[in-house]
Amino acid sequence: MRQKHIVVTGDLTIDWALRENSMPPISDAEDRLRTLVNVRWLTGGAFLLADMIEAAAHGPVTTHRPDRPQEGALRAFDNPYNHSFAIISRYPVEPVENEDQHWRVKEYLGFGSDAVDINPLLPERFYQGIDVRAAPDIIVLDDSALGYRDTWKDGPPGDDLLPGLRSKDRGPWLLLKMSHRIAEGEIWSYFNKRLRDQNDTLASRFIAVTSASRLRDAGAGISRDISWERSVRDTALELQLHKRLQALSNCRLLIVSFGPSGALLIDRTEASGPSYTLVFDRERTERSWRRKNGQGTMFGYGSALCGAVAAELARSADRPKLVRAMRSGLSAMQSMYDQGFDLGDDHRDGSNEFHCPTSKIFEPASAKAKDGPRLATAKNISITRSPSDSLSFLRLDSRRLKDPKSADLPKRVATMGDQVLENVPVGRFGKLTVVDRREIEGLHAIRNIIARYRDGLRFGQQPLALAVFGAPGSGKSFAVKQLVESEISGHDKASIKFLEFNLSQFGGPSDLVGALHRVRDTALAGDLPVAFWDEFDTKLDGSRLGWLRHFLSPIQDGSFRQKGTVHRVGPCIFVFGGGTFHSFADFSRAAPEAERELKVPDFLSRLRGYIDIAGVNPEPEDSSYLIRRALVLHALFTAQAIARKENSCKEFDVDPGILEALLKVPTYRHGVRSIRSIVEMSTTSPGRPFLPADLPPKSILNLHVDGDLFLKLARGDR
Question: pTM above the 0.70 mark?
Fold first, then answer.
């Protein structure tokens, strides 16, 4: 393999960090004289991008980059560099191997814009030290709208600096990283003009990299935490319709980053139309990854992704595997967060420079694996592709489940878990795991509503009213409890306390007053009560929805009346669980305008959101109920400690006939409760296989299923 040459230039920054002091806050003017502040610096921008490329590229690669500055010549707000400022702090991360590796940004303070305005960056600084005697194979440009793009006013700054860029012949790969004010400025104008030229070969060797956050800055309506499919659809639609962003469609290869959780490749190299490939964390979307990893943040994620792409171009110049590079880049981003900044010793070599963990996040490939780095953090990263005629590629849809290759998929999920659902997003909310896209989107939407309510928590706040619908036994209360606990547990403002009330057991409105007092007492104790009102659609005074009018004042005014005295409820979350309605649509149809005397329209207007929970029995056009059953069974097998197969420590040893019966029986009379009862009533014991002799008798099975049919399925080929 011949030596490859990579030119890296662009906006140059110095990132200054104030290390947070562990001493108590300064309260007296004299105390400031006894409190030392340690200031560190790091080369960012194109400097950091070049570091990432050198760390990711393994093999005969030479990187040509601007000269690094010397510490003695650095001054904040002093050109020829841009300067950013942040506060970094130490965060405890488990497992703690080296506490110095867990320094992250606590707060960004901004850029030194005064220096930029007063002393424009000198154009030659961007190229000082770059000396390419052979034509480069790859040119990487970092455009952050911090001065570098202005040097392109008259086009590329000379063939001696960027050779081959003006040639119509097959030239180097061009990788453009756009970080701010995308699709604007002199650099973009130059490339956009060439990308529209059908005879210009640059279009086939040009890759643009940006992020969903920067698209949003430009006005794109891209959802953050609903579902991966929604994010991909939003991105594709905005690039087609948003006037300011339509020019990005001229890029035949465009990579959009969603941070450490995902990246989207839009490939327009085929005449049939664009194709979409998503590399994603199957358990967490963009915002939920940030929420999970919320102990500080890092900068340099975009450089890590571009570094992996540039390394792939150097490794496979003719037919680069960009998806492989994106997977490596996401792994590097996640590893970067896990490692944190390296501050080293306070006076190592007399320098105050700190470093991104570039040498640790890109690990070299093994001798047998020639397809790029292998990283431990890649275990949850999946890849899925969509043809140009469809964006519905993240669903467990009927076509996939009816595929003969997927015939045993539910059985594998039941015995091995959701890991066998390769390249399918899953939603995890505490102990609740869902794979249906509609459920994932609904649960994420409700969680976002709860998060906004939590962030504005105050005593005089009105209750938040939500509703949950589903078939009996679908696990409505369990889903709500897991969702709320996963969002609020551990928050410093309030701890969660789940209160469950079944209105079908109330004798009348006086019982409701007693329940509201329990909610009020919980709020007064400093906790955040979540009151689950089960079977809110039960009859009161002969009316099917008679209870609803009694909740209007507690929801709207945050108060209730008892014997002429008005009591405040306090901040809380009301969740109304339907007992007879399987979906919100069913409830809406059963609550017409004619029932105004029951205040049903007023109740609907006070709801802030709802969830439809899919059960384990099939509904019309429902193709994934078998997977839902399988997920429930896997959790039960785990709880019962069923033995694992000898040839596979990951697979439960369950008789095939029992699996067939548990999965294929048409109806469970009481939903999830029936599945749990059958498994728990079986005579299994920890460490033993689940065999036909363990099943309960038909008389017991008849309580939950058609016993004859169940046993017939369980006997199978016997």
Answer: yes
